[in-house]
Amino acid sequence: MVVNIIFLVTMYPVLFVLYFILKNQGDVKNGYSVGVRMRTEWMADEEVKRILETYRKELKKQTVILAVLPLSAFAISYFSIQFTIWMIWTCALIGCPMIPYIRANRLLRARKRERGWGSNGGYVYADLKGAVYGVRQVKILPFVPPVAISLAAGIWGLWQSVRADIMAPGIMAATFAMITPAFFGVALWMDRQKNEVISRDSDVNINFNRARKRVWKNIWLFEAWLNTIFCVAVSATLVITKMQGAGILVECAIYTIAGVLPLFWATKRLWEINTHYKDLRDIPEGEDDGDEYWIGGIFYYNKNDRHSMVTNRAGTGTTMNLATPGGVFIELLGALGLAVIPISCVWILLEEFTPIRLSVQDQTIVAEHLKVEYEIPLSDILEAELIEERPRWSKVTGTNMDHLDKGTFHIRNVGNCEVLMDPQNEVFLRIRTADEVYYISAPDDEGTREIWEEIMK
Question: What is the pLDDT of residue 33?
């Protein structure tokens, strides 16, 4: 149920925000319609109206379908299936709304060619005053405290995890600590990107770009502080409570939700800025359309533009220039991230639905799941008992599902133990050797009792 709530709160609203953003792309916004440079008078063409009306209908139909599909996850009790449904839905959320957008973009560009509409002279407007004086909003000083605190928290958490012999949370704290300076780097990089020219008045251009860059500066500064708080919370949870499994799960949920919410604010604020400056735009429509550099109106590829980031034609914000090394690198990272999704879904399904196998072979207890997890020679066992109550523990590393506990778990005031068992069973084996304590079970209680009898012999 936790995974359903997290996705419902963080990702589900994105569907409707995306719908309203893309729906409005059917009108002339800042001289563009579905990513195609258009003049206001061209929008009165009947074929253009038909293309855009079809676009809106297809977009609405897809949104309704996408709004219904993930709700099926609430009727399923298996974590792996819930996770798979939401992951597939996330991929669909990214790709499906783009299909009607790209189709409308292609048809609208064809209509422009058919009617002889196009650039009127191919002029490119540049603001030399803006280029000379620049528009910069990101300063180093505001980012120094969160970077310093997060790095200190990461080092402290890693040190405490070594002392407590619970490495996973410490490694997590140290890893996330490195993200804070990365946020500063991204903020600085975006702040140095190409300024957009919307007017012949340099002051209008400067104020417009300053307002937009201030929004992104505030977003990255917020994310830096949020990441810092998360690093401190992870380290504190490790040291104070030793309940890293449940505690860090709650912290991750809050961190995810808090990290996504500002993006809605940024979208709204950028929309307000564009609306405010709409009447101040005086660059002639259609003068420099540049449609040939936009693949589907979404992907920007221009070898003549050295900037790796440009203003997006689809919605708000920026996008990458795929003709630059930086653009290629970022897009490859995104593609790699999407490729990981089906792999992770298959792995989690195998984790939950592969049965545990427990046997005694050649005087050795063999505990198997996807592979041989533990081999415990009977001669190494110092103590063994059949228990009927699972200890209260928290996960350090491994898997914690309704029908599978696997990996290293921590019991408060006792220490770490190795686990491979179905928590729905009623009896379990607790085995202590000189080096480890194991909690294991067969797929059912009868099998667990049989292994117990083998040990007692």
Answer: 86
Last residue of a domain, one of 253, 282, 311: 282
Residues 143 and 260 in one domain: yes
Same domain for 267 and 157? yes
Domain co-membership, 415 together with 268: no
Examine the pLDDT at 287 and tell me if it is beyond 50. no
Compute the distance between CA of residue 219 and CA of residue 46 in angstroms, rounded to an integer: 42
Say how many residues make up the chain.
Answer: 457
Domain holding 180, by residue range, is 126-282
Picking from 255, 321, 371, 309, the residue whose alpha carbon sits closest to that of residue 6 is 255
pLDDT tens, 225-279?
Answer: 999 998 888 777 766 655 455 566 677 778 877 887 887 788 788 888 878 887 7
Instruction: Give the per-residue pLDDT at 120.
Output: 47
Could you report the per-residue pLDDT of 17-27, keeping only the tens digit for each? 888 888 888 88
Distance CA 32, CA 38 (A): 5
Residue 412 within a domain: yes
Q: How confident is the model at residue 122 (pLDDT cuts 50, 70, 90)?
A: very low
Q: Please state, in angstroms and rounded to a whole number, the distance separating the CA atoms of residues 256 and 262.
A: 11
H or E, element range at 360:
strand 357-361
Taking all residues of the chain, what is their mean pLDDT, rounded to a whole number?
A: 83
Nearest by Cα to 321 from 299, 288, 338, 337? 299
Q: What is the CATH number of the domain that holds 152?
A: 1.20.120
- CA 10 from chain centre, in angstroms, equals 10
- Pick from 340, 395, 296: which is nearest to 35 by CA? 296
Dist. CA 366–CA 373, nearest whole Å: 8
> First-to-last CA distance in the chain?
43
CA distances in angstroms from 122 to 39, 43, 130, 201, listed in the order given: 15, 21, 21, 20
Lowest mean pLDDT among 377-381, 425-429, 453-457: 453-457
Least Cα distance to 224 among 153, 330, 135, 144 occurs for 144
SS3 393: coil
Residue 331 pLDDT greater than 70, yes or no: yes
Between strands 364-368 and 372-377, the pairing is antiparallel
At which of 264, 282, 300 does a domain end? 282
> What SS3 class is residue 418?
strand
Q: Is-contact 161 167, C-beta < 8 A? A: yes
**Total of domains in the chain:** 2
- Structure tokens belonging to residue 340: 């990981």
Percent of the chain with pLDDT strictly greater than 70: 88
Tokens of 175: 């890893």
If you search the block for the tokens 């050649």, which residue do you land on?
362
In a domain, 231, yes or no: yes
